[in-house]
Amino acid sequence: MSRPSNKKIALISAAVLAGGVLAAAALDMRLTSVKYEVGSPKVSGKITIAFISDLHNSLFGKNQSELIAAVENMSPDIVIFGGDLADKTQDLQPEYSFILVRDLAAKYPCYYTIGNHESWRGDSKRIKRQMEEMGVTVLEGNGDVININGTEIEICGIYDAYTADYDEQSGEFIGQLEAVTDTDSDRYRILLAHFPEQIEEYMTGGFDLVLSGHAHGGQWAIPGLINGVYAPGQGFFPKYAGGMYPHGDTVHIVSRGLWKPSDLLAIPRLFIRPELVEITISDYS
Q1: pLDDT computed for residue 258 by the predictor
Q2: What pairs with residue 253 in β-bridges?
Q3: Which segments of 112-267 does DSSP mark as H helices, in order?
């Protein structure tokens, strides 16, 4: 049997090396930060938001040190948690997520609404209570007004566009989206709503900025060709996998989320690193 030539060995070695580099890039689960800039005449000065979505109790460094440092590096005015902090299957108690929340809530105004995983767990009431005890404002069919750098910002949150809550005063069920709708406000209005595929409904509420997660970037991506392959609620090649999407006067930002596989049985993310989102809102001048 003849020995392979040096040329063949070199080609095989190059192919193996290229495959290894490609696999390393595809499965890279290091934390990354993504920045978006939004302009609005309703804002004076600059407002910085750290948007944390779909953590699913994943851990970044000892006691979330990497994630905390990345948030602090942004010097945010507010921190917004976009649902699925806890996970339906990865944990019984979302302690890794709570480590992060405790630290950030002691430093910044924090807001939160649940995602589908908190709902599926069946203990979302307990989680919301714990978030409030840590100093986080829980939004679910309600809103809060905060003054940031001289600008009044209204931050609202809903579970989804179709959930209704019983109103004891009127004796009727009122939709969460209806409860936070205001198309005549002069304030800059932000809606936190986990499911990006419902953007057409969210746009009826009079919001300047809508923040969503859920899609995990479409789980798999092909850099430069496909932004995402599949997302729940959207199916294959989702329109809102991750990124910034302008809709007239409304800007929709979808986080690719921070979840990373915890075991070999989990479907991997391919070419989609866990991302922390930084949003800067400023006037047009």
Answers
A1: 96
A2: 211, 244
A3: 116-121, 124-133, 176-179, 199-202
- Alpha-carbon distance of 97 to 63, in angstroms, equals 10
Name the residue among 155, 255, 146 with its Cα closest to residue 208.
155
Helix/strand/coil for 131 = helix
Vertex 49, ends 32 and 188: CA angle to 5°?
145
pLDDT for the residue numbered 22: 47
Which has the higher per-residue pLDDT, 23 or 217? Answer: 217
Closest Cα partner for 190 from 204, 177, 207, 205?
A: 207
**CA-CA-CA-CA torsion sign (172, 176, 177, 181):** positive
**What distance in Å separates the CA atoms of residue 111 and residue 156, rounded to the nearest whole number?**
9
User: pTM of this prediction?
Assistant: 0.90
**What residues does 147 pair with on adjacent strands?**
152
Phi, psi of 59 (to 5 degrees): -115, 135
Question: Do the beta carbons of residue 20 and residue 222 sit within 8 Å?
Answer: no
Give the lowest-confidence range in 19-23, 33-37, 121-125, 247-251: 19-23
Buried b (16+ CB within 10 A) or exposed e, 245-264: beeeebbbbbbbbbbbeeee
Assigned token pair, 131 = 């978030």
> Residue 143 to residues 176, 189, 232: CA-CA distances in angstroms?
10, 10, 27
Under 8 Å between Cβ of 48 and 279: yes
Both tokens of residue 115?
């995602």
Q: Write out the two tokens for 194.
A: 């986990």
